[in-house]
Amino acid sequence: MSTSTTPPRALPATGHTRHPAPLGSLGLFTVLLGSALPLIDFFIVNVALPTIDHDLAAGPAMLELVVAGYGLAYAVLLVLGGRLGDLFGRRRLFLVGMAAFGLTSLACGLAPDAWTLVGARVAQGAASALMLPQVLATIQATTSGPRRAKALSLYGATAGLSMVAGQILGGVLVAADIAGTGWRAIFLVNVPVALLGLALASRTVPDTRAERPAPVDVPGTLLLAIALLTLLAPLTEGRAAGWPLWTWLSLAVFPFVARAFWWVERRADRQGRTPLVPPSLLGLVSLRRGLALVLPLSIGFGGFMFVIAVALQQGLGMGAVVSGMALVPMAVAFFGASLAGPRLVRRYGSRIVTAGGLIQGAGLLVLVATVRAGWPELGALELLPGMALAGLGQGLQLPVLFRIVLSDVPAERAGVGSGVMVTTQQSALALGVATLGSLFLSLAASSGMRAALSVTLLVQLGAVALTVLLSLRLPRTVG
Predict the structure, then answer these.
(1) Which of 114, 371, 407, 430 has its CA 20 to 30 A from that of 282?
(2) Do 255 and 347 lie in a common domain?
């Protein structure tokens, strides 16, 4: 099987099909723009939470929902979004997702109360889940060889930069208070960007789809959604809600639902049907081992970005702009490492991931030493060395891992493969915010911000050590 341009055409007797139009530079820019928006909006609210609380009288539990509602809807629907792109055409789903993202961003920016904002954020997460899987699937279907390697490296760079830039941009927009919009600007700014994306995508992004697309796996979709909800919902809401009975019951149910999901998917695979997450896809060594690293790396990244936003603003008393600017060294180092990545990979292969983990670990150790020595008189300058090292290490890991995960995924499964990878990443980001965030906030209440930040960074260091060990099992060469 292979991909084809729309409208779909019958397979010739030879089984071959006409290749889709190649993805040009402007088309690549457009899909990367689509990949940046969801990740920026996952993190952009971190620095705006205090002003949202003040304006809408939201309270801690509601603020958790503003963050978690988006992340949950996003994570739960990503694999389904990839399957729908295979079925109905990836450009069509990209356009639908982009339009929905713009409309839901407008709803977030105009929300009159906290509950409306939470509902709009859930809808915004669902829109993101329609749009993002089409990005990697389109790259997989319309590029090959060195051009695909470059495009995947740029995707990884865009993903990492978006997560850091979200908090920087959020700080600038909140402080600028454009036309008195305050925190609302972090959502309203998406509207013109989405309109630009729609105009560009309709002209520059070739449409691809699976030649013989499989129907939606309804049982698998429902079980995956329930599994993710039973894990992520109690972890993200438990601390703020005081760990009521439902959180423990939900966590107890999770392993049984996860087991049922896997059984249903294996059964469908053996019967010749196409499950939502084909177990045979996880038979690809590069995908399986790459995902094993994406998980702890993303847990640490998500938790770090949330914790550092709270520590800088509430612990050190930095304003939104200054706390955002403290992350600039991380963003610059990440970008530089991402640009150098393809050349380094050609020479050293997957050992670049190992080196990146060691550098990131060194950065975290520097940050711990800086926090313990200088708190509470720290500024952005004192934090610079640790931030830069951590960003450099992450930039050497994330883009390369994305290439490794997708390197052996066949084109006809591009939507499923990208959906699995992005779901793993997004679920891990949400899990990092829930676990490391809860750890930090609990320790801060009992032991103070300095001790809480130090311990949380050391826990993240443990996750980095795990990624270093796992990286030694990666295929040496990177496709």
Answers:
(1) 430
(2) no
For 352-405, the DSSP string reads HHHHHHHHHHHHHHHHHHHHHHHTTS--HHHHHHHHHHHHHHHHHHHHHHHHHH
Distance CA 329, CA 32 (A): 22
Question: 225 and 323: one domain?
Answer: no
Is the same domain home to 328 and 456? Answer: yes
Residues 27, 43, single domain; the answer is yes
Do 290 and 244 share a structural domain?
Answer: no
For residues 132 and 170, membership in a common domain is answered with yes
The alpha carbon of residue 159 and the mean position of all alpha carbons in its chain are separated, in whole angstroms, by: 7
3 vs 212: CA distance, rounded Å? 9
Residues 100-145 have pLDDT tens digits of 999 999 999 999 999 999 999 999 999 999 998 899 888 888 887 7
pTM as predicted: 0.81
Beta strands in 130-249 (DSSP E): 209-210
Tell me how far apart the alpha carbons of residues 161 and 176 are, in angstroms, rounded to a whole number: 22
Strands (E), 177-248: 209-210
Q: Hunting for tokens 């890991």 — which residue is that?
A: 397
Residue 253 Cα distances to 164, 226, 229, 234, 243, angstroms: 34, 10, 10, 11, 16
Q: Cα–Cα–Cα angle for 277, 278, 283, nearest 5°?
A: 120
**How big is the chain by its Cα radius of gyration, in Å?**
21
Whole-angstrom CA distances from 305 to 111, 161, 298, 448 are: 25, 12, 11, 19
Note the pLDDT tens digit of each residue in 229-284.
Answer: 898 888 877 877 788 999 999 999 999 999 999 999 899 888 877 787 888 888 88
Q: How far apart are the first and last CA of the chain?
A: 21
Give CA–CA dist 339/331, Å, rounded: 12
- C-alpha distances in Å from residue 135, one per residue of 98, 124, 210: 12, 17, 15
CB 416 within 8 A of CB 278: yes
Which DSSP category does 3 fall into? E
CA distance 33 to 368: 34
How far is it, in rounded angstroms, from Cα 380 to Cα 335? Answer: 19
The answer to whether 169 and 40 have CB atoms below 8 angstroms apart is: yes
Rounded CA-CA distance 324/251 in Å is: 35
Per the structure, the complete domain to which residue 251 belongs is given by 217-275
